[in-house]
UniProtKB/TrEMBL annotation:
Lineage start: Bacteria, Pseudomonadati, Bacteroidota, Cytophagia, Cytophagales
Protein name as catalogued: Aminotransferase
Keywords: Aminotransferase, Pyridoxal phosphate, Transferase
Any one Gene Ontology molecular-function term assigned to this protein's record: transaminase activity
Domain Aminotransferase class V stretches: 69-391
One family name in Pfam for this protein: Aminotran_5
Top-rank lineage group of the source organism: Bacteria
SUPFAM superfamilies xrefs: PLP-dependent transferases
Length: 429
């Protein structure tokens, strides 16, 4: 197993590590020592420090028996987030309308400022909602498009968004232009050229997924946005899988609209999403759930959701604290280290194993798909669970056929060794 740990280390500058008190009980005897050691390391060096990450794991309440390697679907919340939700639920149930609408509601604007800062945008461009589907459907169904206007998209985009576009096609007569992408890929030109080739004088929108759910492919959104803008075309970006996963700010993508789910990589309670759009676009997009002034340029018009849990929303604050304490750069480096560990060692097991995700930094991070020649993705995922109690998800789409494996910051090398044993078993079947 030691030979598996021979990845090249690349030292990079590191900022000071904030207190680890968010992660673990401060009475832990080795905590200070570990924190001191961690401070000396670059994110890539720290990524390999099992002691450090074993303390991070203590902030989670994940099952020690079932190994969860489907963190792409939805993430568990760390303990401080779970505690916050429980605490706020207790308050709310003492007098719901007073605590929710009178007290907790006052937290929304500071929360908007905090999350906007993390995302690198203005708070006046951020709306809270329940998930990526709601965020992007608001944009897709609300943006001004006429009969004959063209939208470019592909089959690897997420089905909910494709359904929204198809509904607009059905109702409004817009035209959907489908492009083919060859995945996996680490060829930027091959990933951008199909969008460029599909542009006509009628193209109004390009829909692009930042990280494709089927195999974890990261798309060159910035390049696609720059090409689109040269021709006056708007870009809608599905950021469900990348926010608080890879280290970026929304403006880095150059897109016009962005939606994400905060219950994925931020670890906020389930049912939290975020919508961002450029300030100048707000007035032109109709809200999905109308308010009295649907043409206002106030982003809050998208938050007229009716009664919902403010406790869930307000607990985003603790998830953000945890994210800051961990540091996005450190988190990304650990996730990539774990992904490399299992994927590269899986390839070494047998020629029957394929990794259907690019392993280069620019084009992937935690999500990757393992295929085994002669087996369907669902058979692989079933054996992982039935025999090894490893929870993954099957992915079968166009050229992708395998089990999608997604570790998290609480995943250990031991967990991944069990996965490698399972892969080895399947190759011998
Ligand atoms: C790329 C992508 N977009 C959107 C979604 C939908 O997210 P949600 O169900 O939180 O709305 C997902 C869910 O996994 C996804 O993978």
């Amino acid at each position: 197993m030691n030979s598996r740990r021979s990845f090249i280390r690349k030292a990079t500058a590191i900022s000071a590590i904030p207190t680890l008190s968010s992660f673990v009980n401060l009475t832990q005897p080795r905590l200070e020592e570990i924190q001191k050691e961690a401070l000396k390391k670059s994110p890539t060096e720290l990524a390999e420090d099992e002691d450090f990450w074993s303390f991070i794991k203590q902030s989670y309440t994940v099952s020690p028996q079932i190994i969860n390697l489907n963190n792409g679907g939805v993430s568990p919340s760390p303990k401080p987030v779970q505690d916050s939700l429980e605490r706020l639920n207790h308050y709310a149930n003492e007098c719901p309308s007073y605590y929710m609408w009178g007290i907790m509601d006052q937290g929304r604007e500071p929360l908007r400022e905090n999350i906007a800062k993390f995302a690198g945008v203005s708070p006046e461009e951020i709306a809270f909602n329940r998930n990526t589907t709601e965020a992007l459907d608001t944009i897709i169904l609300g943006m001004p498009l006429q009969k004959g206007d063209e939208v470019i998209l592909c089959e690897y985009d997420y089905p909910n968004m494709l359904n929204a576009w198809r509904q607009r096609e059905m109702r409004d007569g817009i035209v959907l232009k489908w492009i083919d992408l060859k995945l996996p890929s680490d060829d930027k030109k091959a990933l951008t050229q199909p969008y460029l080739d599909a542009i006509t004088g009628k193209t109004k929108v390009i829909h692009v997924t930042h990280m494709i759910n089927y195999n974890g492919q990261i798309m060159p959104v910035k390049e696609i946005s720059d090409l689109a803008h040269k021709k006056g075309i708007e870009v809608v970006c599905d950021g469900a899988h990348t926010f608080a996963h890879i280290d970026f700010k929304i403006p880095d993508l150059g897109c016009d609209y962005f939606g994400t789910s905060l219950h994925k990589w931020l670890g906020a309670p389930i049912g939290n999403g975020l919508l961002w759009m450029k300030k100048e676009k707000i007035a032109t997009v109709y809200p999905l759930l109308p308010n009295p002034n649907p043409k206002t340029d106030n982003i809050r018009k998208f938050e007229n959701l009716g009664t919902r849990s403010f406790m869930i929303e307000q607990s985003i604050g603790e998830a953000l604290n945890f994210q800051y304490a961990l540091g996005n750069e450190r988190k990304e480096a650990r996730l990539r280290y774990l992904r490399d560990y299992w994927a590269k060692n899986a390839l070494a097991i047998s020629d029957r194993v394929s990794i259907q995700t690019s392993l280069s930094k620019e084009f992937s991070c935690a999500l990757a798909v393992v295929g085994i020649d002669g087996l369907m993705g669902r058979e692989i995922a079933k054996t992982f669970f039935d025999k090894y109690k490893i929870h993954t998800t099957q992915r079968t789409k166009i050229d992708i056929n395998g089990s999608r494996v997604t570790p998290h910051v609480y995943t250990s090398i031991n967990d991944l060794d069990r996965l490698l044993t399972a892969i080895e078993y399947l190759t011998k079947g």
